[in-house]
Amino acid sequence: MKILITGASGLIGKELSKALVGKGYEILAATRKTSGKPNEIEWDTEKGFADKDLPQLENLQAIIHLAGENVSGRWTDEKKRKIMDSRVHGTRSVVEAIAKLENKPKVFISGSATGIYGDRADETMTETSAAGDTFLAEVVKNWEAEAVKAENSGVRVVLLRTGIVLAKDGGALAQMLTPFKFGVGGTLGSGKQWMSWISLEDEIRAIIFALENENIRGAVNLVAPHPVTNEQFTDTLGAVVHRPTILPLPAFAVNLAFGEMGDALLLDSTRVVPTKLQEHGFEFKYPELKPALEAAVK
């Protein structure tokens, strides 16, 4: 069974590809520039797939779409445009390709994010909660709106609303580890904002669970069942790396250092629970933060 993955070279894409190959799937990687390998197909967020390459997409088991501009970095107007356009245009191009196929994939799994809920203080978010009104919420709403159009082609659609993925080689945790290891880590802002996280291993397991469970469709929160406050996260990470956490970064300093991106990714409070995964019987390997961090940094 063959699966197409966009963003296969990213943090999640690489681990997912390895896990799927280990389960006997064949991977076709969509990439901006092919290297001549038979398991690659040319694609980018603006141009999509060339019509001449569409036969390679026939009879796929699934398309897993993970590609998108990295949200890290100062959010200039140009950066924000790239964040939005890479997701909206990229997803549209994949959905349009699906519509042209005679033998369509059984499922289209599209990346998404818990950022859709915005800054919600202590409110607990499930998949049925309303979207927020932040820039990231608007990005995700538009992103998901393009993805669900694949349902018009009779394809099951799954939207992966992923939280903070814990991995030492990429993502938010990788950026946090350096200051913490030097003993200069600390809470951000008030420390009361909620962080919804998931181990990289559970992220991959949950994606495969959604792939193989035909009853799962629509939005799925890919987060561990126990979100924590930034203060709790800070104390736990400090304990795991055996370093003090005595240098907090006030909200104004976060804003000065990172601008709007810092507010959205570091100070906004998003308390999300994985209702749909649990309803379908998914069992987390790392439901609690400390063991997840220990596994991530070892």
Task: Walk me through this protein's architecture.
The chain contains 10 helices and 13 strands. The chain has 298 residues and is α/β, with parallel strands linked by helices. It has a domain of 208 residues: NAD(P)-binding Rossmann-like Domain (Rossmann fold), CATH 3.40.50. The strands form 4 sheets. A 7-stranded parallel sheet has the order 3-2-1-4-5-7-11, with helices on both faces.
Topology, pairings included?
Elements: E1 2-6, H1 11-22, E2 26-31, E3 40-42, E4 62-65, H2 77-100, E5 107-113, E6 124-125, H3 135-147, E7 156-162, E8 164-166, H4 171-181, E9 194-195, E10 197-199, H5 200-212, E11 218-222, E12 228-229, H6 230-241, H7 251-258, H8 260-267, E13 271-272, H9 275-279, H10 289-297
Parallel strand pairs: 1-2, 1-4, 2-3, 4-5, 5-7, 6-13, 7-11, 8-10
Antiparallel strand pairs: 9-12
Helix pairs in contact: 1-5, 2-3, 6-10, 7-8
Overall SS class = alpha/beta
- Indicate the CATH class of the domain at 2-165 and 197-225 and 272-286: Alpha Beta
> What's the number of extended β-strand segments?
13
What distance separates the N and C termini? 34 Å
Following the backbone from N to C, one meets helices and strands in this order, namely EHEEEHEEHEEHEEHEEHHHEHH
CATH topology call of the domain at 2-165 and 197-225 and 272-286? Rossmann fold
Instruction: Figure out the total of helices.
Output: 10
User: Could you say which overall geometry the principal axes of the C-alpha atoms support?
Assistant: globular
